[in-house]
# Entry
Amino acid sequence: VVRDVAYGQIPRASRAEKHRLVAEWIESLASDRSDDRAEMLANHYLSALELAFAAGMQTDELSEHARAALREAADRAFSLGSYAQASKLYGKALELWPAEDPAQPLLVLRRALAAYESGVDVDPSELEQLPGRFLAAGDTEHAAEAEMALCRLTWTRGDGSASGKHRERALELVASQGPTRTKAYVLAEGSRQLMLAFEWDRARAIGREALVLAESLGLDRFRASVLITLGTAQGTTKEIEQGLEIAKQLNDIQQTTRGYNNLSEALMDGGDFVAVGPLYESARDNAQRFGHRLALRWLDAQDGAYRYFVGEWDLALRHLDKYLAEVDSGSPHYMESTARSARAQIRYARGDTAGALEDGERSVAAGRAARDPQALAPLIFYARLLIEEGRTEEAFTLTEEALRGGFIPYYAAYDVASVMSALGTRSESLRFPEVNELWRSLADAVLQGQLVEVADQLGDLGLKPDEAHARLGAARELVAKGRRIEADKQLGRALAFYRSAGASRYVREGEALLLESA
# Structure
């Protein structure tokens, strides 16, 4: 208190001079300590500037020193992964930076990247002019970095068309560049984006080039990213686990979240759903520890969908409702199609037909906007609801669209087969996409009407809603054949889940079928 009072009694002009002198003294220290003093230097110059301005003094020279010091401190914070602080410091520097200065676009780019890495939803329109400004100055390297930043921002918001265009422009700009950090960044992120678009061959080729470059330049963050991408593209967990460990050592929240997420996907593709719950919990703990909003948003959608599939519907809705409230507030996101699709299934099962159909329609629109093949899976889930509503023609059209690209994610295999079976002869023109042997055999069993065997397999996998759906379908067929004891056994197991999950629609249907079988 004594110090603060004494400081406040010093005239502003004198305080400004003292801060300036301290800053100059810090600058005079040995250059090998520059990293340690960057933010301290910036604070003294900024204080000197503010006080001098308030005292009516000349500030041009102080302003130049302050913005340079702020930029140095921001660069330092960014290199250490202190993205929120870096974004704040870049913002302060930009307040002092002349808009016409050649260095100004780079600070705009750095501030946006720092904000994005810290978990803030950044509006891509803030960067739209940057590639052109860099190219006009002959700076292709930073033009490529700006294009890739736009690729990431638009992809996160679910705009697959814009994202793909920015990705290709970024890759084209670095094609003839030498081995630089920017090229490593663009190749690493380009490989990830191509993997997400299921352009597997290009993703692997560019990823391997990025890995060699990242290793030669000692860029462990990009190395972690590429290992996670390559492991995902190759369907192996070894590289994903290696990338995840590197990311954890670096406290790189985005790559850590990717690592946990992609490892979970690989395990579920192989049928190990039980191991995934703890991975999502670890990812969530890590994101909460760093207060990373974008990572937490992603996990709310991804974990919410997972909890739907394993039958933990109340927990699923807590995650999904929170996530979709943010989307509805005006913050679009890539995972909207997945989140709405999962919530639609729960709403429909619990008797909220109008809410389910609204979520279903919006999941289709969001999936189409994202454009990635995996984002079209919600078309299949919505088609299944439409079949239950008797809207088979619409269901066929959606199924045909979803299968046109020749890909479905593993978790949609049962639904695709169920929809094709329900469509009957209409499905003869549809081709079931390539999936691994586990999911192919399950789909074949559905198409062959072996629903009891399918339900048992789904039960072993832990996919409770799909298991109950298969048992209810099996019971219908058994009742029609007069096999009451077998039908009641399947109904009993289906109803046990539906009652525990509050699935009133299917409870009523199952109980009516139970009476019919009696």
The radius of gyration is 28 Å. The mean pLDDT is 89. DSSP finds 27 helices and no strands in the chain. The CA atoms of residues 102 and 177 lie 21 Å apart.
